[in-house]
Amino acid sequence: MAPPQGNNSGSTKSGLRRRSLLAGAAALGAVGAVGATSGCSRVATADTEDGGSLLDQLRAKGTVTLGLAGEQPYSYIGTDGKMTGSAPAIARRIFKELGVDHVEPFATEFNSLITGLNSLQFDVVAAGMYINEERCGQVVFADPEYQMLDAFIVKEGNPKNLHTYKDIAKSGAKMATGIAWAEIDYAKEAGVKNIGTFPDQLAGLLAVQQGRIDVFVGTAVTVFNAVEQAGKGSGIEATKEVQPYVDGKPVTDVGAFAFRTPETNLRDAFNRELHKLKKSGELLEIMRPFGFTKDQMTTTRAEEKCNP
Question: Which DSSP helix (H) or strand (E) runs through 219?
């Protein structure tokens, strides 16, 4: 799926926000442990303009280190202590094709992903990071593997009839989302005045259950997964997908892997394998277990978001 790099955002106003969904307190402990053990292995980046040699270095080493952000379902440490999520699953498949058999996690906060990448703490950002113009000035992106709209967690029956951001604004409903998530900007754009934040989607879901807020807003796949995991009888439900707007225009965000700016050879090789997966339909099959659907597959190219 960083801010101030915020994770995500297709918002042309902030250009930076992105949610930082955590897998819960237990997972956070695992995340810290994994990051600590993975940080000692650094692979130097290129300092020339020839596209870099990182791919050759990774092949020789046999391992690539992935920067994770603890976000479900993009990249996180599962309850079994192992790295999981749509991005690591894609990385395993593509890097194996590129001659790199092993992937290792380096877990950090979403806001630290670009800094960590450029300071050689890991080799690639594998966190579903949204592409926007500002980030394109700091890293090079692969073409996106998914596109995403938003959704709402509401009380069962949706008593305030909330289906759009404007519905939230007009009704005066109490809304919350994640800290520094793109949804903050989208809500403000629609005129929502009172916007609270929670550290993750689980805390937001509980707040809706307990009546402390009327609606929690997140990416569609995050919301749908959270509500499904809550199960029947939880007293909450998910709305259908919600279209955000910026400056009156619809916004559909896209997420992708990120590489250090000189390493275009690695990015290009990654793209070639990614497009093979898209063409064969295998990409969807890799991502489907994490809640992604055919509608979230995309043919958008990175340059379309970097140079809109």
Answer: strand 215-219
